[in-house]
Design a protein that fits this description.
Pfam families: Bet_v_1. There is one protein chain. The chain has 152 residues and is α+β, with helices and mostly antiparallel strands. The protein is built from 3 helices and 7 strands, in the order βααββββββα. Strands 1-7-6-5-4-3-2 form a 7-stranded antiparallel sheet. β3 and β4 form a beta hairpin. The longest helix is centred in the C-terminal third of the chain and has 19 residues, at 129-147. It is globular, with a radius of gyration of 15 Å. The chain starts with a strand and ends in a 5-residue tail after the last helix.
């Protein structure tokens, strides 16, 4: 599988940054409203805390005029290394890619790192650079939100 990585420096607490994504993803609509319109629990998931098997659907605008909804499942959570692995189960992204797995990690170097691993359905399909750009913007917005005292 091919991969793309986006990594941004953090100026906020790395523990709070990880906690935001692990436990408070519902706040993305407030922090990144231009990108994330809605996020919801699905398929019997009844807690916002990410554990293996948790399923959510997120409604995003990856580029102007384009809206997508993506259903994903938590595949792994490693609290000691501040890492969560998500697998896309449904969405327009799977019209281009056979597999789409996203790993979120808060590194010891105080960076937020997203790694997208993907396998194209057709070799002529574009790489998922629109999503790496999107995740970089999300990182920056959440970093600013936490740094200026946003509730986590």
């Amino acid at each position: 599988m091919a991969s793309r990585v986006v990594e941004t420096p953090l100026e906020c607490s790395t523990d709070l940054f990880f906690k935001f994504f692990k436990e408070k993803a519902f706040r993305l609509t407030d922090v990144c409203g231009a990108i994330v319109q809605k996020i919801e629990l699905v398929d019997g998931t009844n807690s916002w805390v990410d554990v293996v098997g948790t399923r959510k659907r997120i409604y995003v605008t990856p580029s102007p005029g384009i809206s997508e909804n993506i259903k994903y499942e938590v595949q792994a959570v490693d609290n000691s290394s501040n890492k969560i692995v998500y697998k896309v189960l449904q969405g327009a992204v799977l019209q281009l890619y056979k597999n789409f797995v996203v790993t979120f990690e808060v590194t010891p170097a105080s960076t937020a790192k997203w790694t997208i691993q993907y396998e194209k359905l057709d070799p002529s399909n574009k790489d998922p650079d629109v999503y790496t750009g999107l995740l970089g913007t999300v990182n920056n917005n959440v970093n600013t939100y936490i740094r200026y005292g946003g509730e986590v």
